[in-house]
Every structure is written in structure tokens, then in C-alpha cells.
Design goal:
L-fuculose-1-phosphate Aldolase
Length: 363
């Protein structure tokens, strides 16, 4: 099997002044490091390429979105197996593992928590397996499923929560990759039932947008898939009540970035809400309109595009701090929390008390 070179291994090659084997499969991040810097001849020793002449090449922004040919999905078991083990798919498997290590290293998952999916065809999706640490996956652990969650390839069983990812992909065609995790700050907002306010940080507005909130349903069930997909149609990042966060993007790293954006934003809002009496400064609706326009120019949709300026920064539902309240008592409930005492029992107790006091007084 051809060797897959990751970004970490590419950096080591550069440090040692070595080149990658000629038939190696490069992950996109590894290709970025090596292209134009190391000539992949398979010969030992450094192969530093000359800098491109001025004016000959325009600087680019790498695009990692996987583009398949519509209608060309493999059909037979043999075709599916060849596709699953092809160099481009092997590179994508490795990229999923790279993202798994990132969410694990950032403390966004513990134990076997979290999952990652990446769409690679009309009806084909790569996904992480169940019961595995996302920090220690290899390409051989990744599964291939269809949009109905039927497993097509892979030696390990797919995650049960893949159905939620697939529901998002069905409802939102732009969702090519999903990442689910439990980042501490964002999950705290989800447990508290608090949606972070908007109009606070320009970068968060451009690259993340408004954060959605999905009501709690049991993980892995059709109900949670339906609820999350409903919210995710208009939100790149969704807080899952009492559960965690799920994000989507055009490729697996794009989705991962939004997970970082979400947790970082929630952390900042949490800290800021403890300062200055909880009063947060807004950038204003007029400025937000500019940022929404910038999002649109970058190919990112925003459901707030048609709202009026006065509606764009409505954070009236965000009330930081602790709210203390005495819960209303149900009918028939006493102040102590129990049922009202039985009048006959009370009368008997009072009668016995009076008799005891009378006997004591006669002595």
C-alpha cells in the first residue's frame, strides 16, 4: 500500500532536508508544505525548487473541498472496495484522522466521544467508527456509508450518531462535512440552555455566523437527527441541548474550524459577561450588515440577510448571570414541599397535646 504523508511527516522531511517517495499520497496540508519547496523525485536529499518568477503565478487560497462526478458512484462490491482504497480517498481518510487528533488535543472530546463525517459522492460518506478515541484513529479505522447510514466498507462499525450528520447533509446540500464534539465552553452554554448573543466579534460573525440551538433528543435516534437538521439548515454551528455541538462546512477542516470558532466565542462571551456588570458592547446592526455582505462574498449563506438593522442585533434573550427564583407550588403542596396535612390527624395531635399539658399543670 502506498504511504500516506501527513503534514507532520512533511514538516519532518523538510527539517531533515529529505523528499517524499515519488508514489506517496499527500494529505492536502502536506501538499501545501511541499509543493514548490520540495521536488518529489523519490531521491534522497533536499530538492528545493526555485522560487517562481515574478508575475508568472498568482497566490492562491487552497481549496480542500472534495468534488465528485455526479452519477458516478461505484455500485458493485468490487467497485466500492476499489474506490474506498483509492489514493484520493485514502488521503481523505487520513485528513479525517488529522481532524480527530485536533479535537482530541483541544480537549473537545473525551473517551470515545465525538464523530466526523465527509461526503465523497452522491450517496457516499466517510465516517469515524463507534467506540474509538478520536485522538488515535488511523486511516484503516474509517468507514464508508451511504446517506441512509448503511455501511458499505470498512472493518470497524460506523458510529450510531452518523444519522444526525446524514440528516444535515440531506437537508443542506452545502454541508459536505460535519464534526460533532463536546467543547467545554460551548457545551456549557448548551447545558445552561443559553444561546450566545450576536454582534460582538467581527471574525465570529464572518466565519461562524449566528449559532443555532437544537432541543434535546436522545443521541442516535431519528428524533435528534430531525431536530438538529431542522436547525442546521440555517446555522453552520448548532448547540445540542444537554449534549454538545455539531458544525458543518464544505470540507472537513472547514467544519473543524467552526468547532474552534464556536468554543472560543462562547469562552469570550462567558468571560465578558462576568465583567462590567454583565453589560456587553454590540458592534451594531449597521456594521453587522457589512459583515453579512462579506460572508456572502465568501460563499457563506446567512439567514439574517433580509432582516432590518433594528432586528439584527436583538440579544434580549441573553441574560448572563444566575437567576434565583422560588418555584411556584403546585395545588395541594405545602411550603415545605409536601402535601397539605390531614385535618383529622391535626385535630388528634392537638387533642393529645392539650391532654398532656393539662396533666403536667395538675402536678
Amino acid at each position: 500500500m502506498r504511504k500516506v504523508i501527513t503534514a507532520r511527516e512533511a514538516e519532518e522531511l523538510l527539517r531533515k532536508g529529505e523528499s517524499a517517495p515519488a508514489d506517496a499520497i499527500l494529505t492536502p496540508s502536506a501538499r501545501d508544505l511541499l509543493t514548490g519547496r520540495v521536488k518529489l523525485t523519490g531521491q534522497p536529499g533536499p530538492r528545493l525548487a526555485a522560487a517562481p518568477a515574478a508575475g508568472k503565478k498568482e497566490p492562491i487560497v487552497p481549496d480542500y473541498e472534495f468534488k465528485w462526478t455526479p452519477g458516478a458512484d461505484p455500485k458493485t462490491p468490487a467497485e466500492i472496495e476499489r474506490f474506498f482504497n483509492s489514493p484520493p480517498i485514502q488521503a481523505l481518510k487520513q485528513r479525517i484522522c488529522d481532524m480527530g487528533r485536533r479535537i482530541w488535543a483541544k480537549n473537545y472530546v473525551d473517551g470515545n466521544g465525538g464523530n466526523v463525517t465527509l461526503r465523497v459522492g452522491d450517496n457516499l460518506v466517510l465516517c469515524t467508527p463507534t467506540l474509538i478515541s478520536k485522538g488515535f484513529m488511523t486511516a484503516d479505522d474509517i468507514c464508508l456509508i451511504d446517506l441512509d447510514a448503511n455501511q458499505l466498507a470498512g472493518t470497524r462499525k460506523r458510529t450510531s450518531e452518523a444519522k444526525t450528520h446524514l440528516a444535515i447533509m440531506k437537508a443542506q446540500p452545502k454541508a459536505k462535512a460535519c464534526v460533532h464534539a463536546h467543547p467545554p465552553h460551548a457545551t456549557a452554554f448548551a447545558v445552561a440552555g443559553v444561546v450566545p448573543p450576536t454582534c460582538m466579534i467581527p471574525e465570529a460573525e464572518v466565519f461562524l455566523g449566528e449559532i443555532g440551538y437544537a432541543k434535546y433528543e436522545t443521541p442516535g435516534t431519528p428524533a435528534v437527527a430531525e431536530e438538529v437538521a431542522r436547525v442546521a439548515v440555517d446555522h453552520y454551528s448548532v448547540l445540542m441541548e444537554n449534549h454538545g455541538v455539531i458544525v458543518w462546512g464544505k470540507d472537513v477542516e472547514d467544519a473543524y474550524w467552526k468547532m474552534e470558532n464556536t468554543d472560543s466565542y462562547c469562552q469570550v462571551i462567558w468571560i465578558a459577561s462576568q465583567l462590567n456588570g454583565g453589560s456587553l458592547r454590540s458592534i451594531g446592526g449597521d456594521k453587522l450588515k457589512d459583515l453579512i455582505g462579506l460572508r456572502k462574498s465568501l460563499g457563506m449563506q446567512d439567514r439574517r440577510e433580509g432582516l432590518k438593522e433594528c432586528e439584527l442585533c436583538d440579544n434580549s434573550d441573553f441574560r448572563p448571570g444566575v437567576i434565583c427564583a422560588v418555584p411556584a407550588r403546585a395545588e395541594g403542596e405545602s411550603a415545605g414541599g409536601g402535601e397539605k396535612p390531614d385535618p383529622q390527624v391535626e385535630a388528634l395531635v392537638q387533642q393529645l397535646t392539650d391532654q398532656i399539658l393539662k396533666q403536667l399543670a395538675a402536678k
